[in-house]
UniProtKB/TrEMBL annotation:
This is Lrp/AsnC ligand binding domain-containing protein. Keywords: DNA-binding, Transcription, Transcription regulation. GO terms for cellular component: cytosol. GO terms for molecular function: sequence-specific DNA binding. The keyword DNA-binding applies. PROSITE patterns: HTH_ASNC_2 (PS50956). InterPro entries: AsnC-type_HTH_dom (IPR000485), Dimeric_a/b-barrel (IPR011008), Tscrpt_reg_AsnC-like (IPR019888), Tscrpt_reg_AsnC/Lrp_C (IPR019887), WH-like_DNA-bd_sf (IPR036388), WH_DNA-bd_sf (IPR036390).
Length: 156
C-alpha cells in the first residue's frame, strides 16, 4: 500500500512525530526534521488527502473525568452476514469507543467506557439486548490499563 502512496522517509518521520505530539507547530517540527514549516504543511495536507492522517485528537485522562469502567465485549452474531447491520447499530451507542471485526470465538470485539457499573449495566442490558442479530455477549472488565501507545511507523 505505501508503495502506491509514494511515502518517503520524511513522511514517516512527520507521522511518527505528530503521533507523539500533535500540538507541535509545523515550524518547530520543520526545525526538528531540518526542513521548512511550509514543507511540513504541504506533507501533512498530502497525508490528509490520501487518508493517512485523519485529524488530531485530544488525549484525555478519562478516569480523571469520572469514567471509571473500561470493559471489552465479545459479541457472538447469529450470522456473520449481519456484521454490517449490527456494527451500524452499535455505532449509535456512545459508550462504545472501538469496534473490531474479529476471528476466533467472537464475531466482534468492542471496547466500552462508562462512568460506573450502573452505566455499564444499562448499556449491556438495555442497549445491546435491543440489537437484532446479536446472539450473545461476553463481557470483560478491565482492572487496569498498563499502557496504551501508538505503533512505531517506518518506511520499511
Amino acid at each position: 500500500m505505501n508503495h502506491k502512496l509514494n511515502l518517503d522517509k520524511l513522511d514517516y518521520q512527520i507521522i511518527q512525530e505528530m503521533m507523539a505530539n500533535a500540538e507541535i507547530s509545523y515550524a518547530d517540527l520543520g526545525k526538528k526534521l531540518f526542513v521548512s514549516g511550509g514543507t511540513i504543511h504541504v506533507r501533512i495536507k498530502k497525508l490528509e488527502e490520501v487518508g493517512i492522517v485523519k485529524g488530531t485528537r485530544l488525549s484525555v485522562d478519562l478516569k480523571a473525568l469520572g469514567y471509571d469502567v473500561i470493559a471489552f465485549i465479545g459479541i457472538y452474531l447469529e450470522k456473520s452476514s449481519l456484521y454490517d447491520t449490527v456494527a451500524k447499530d452499535l455505532r449509535k451507542i456512545p459508550e462504545i469507543v472501538r469496534l473490531n471485526y474479529t476471528t476466533g470465538n467472537y464475531s466482534m470485539f468492542a471496547e466500552i467506557v462508562c462512568k460506573d457499573i450502573q452505566q455499564l449495566r444499562y448499556v449491556l442490558h438495555d442497549e445491546l439486548q435491543k440489537i437484532k442479530g446479536i446472539e450473545r455477549t461476553e463481557t470483560f472488565i478491565s482492572l487496569d490499563e498498563s499502557f496504551a501507545r501508538n505503533v512505531v511507523v517506518t518506511g520499511e
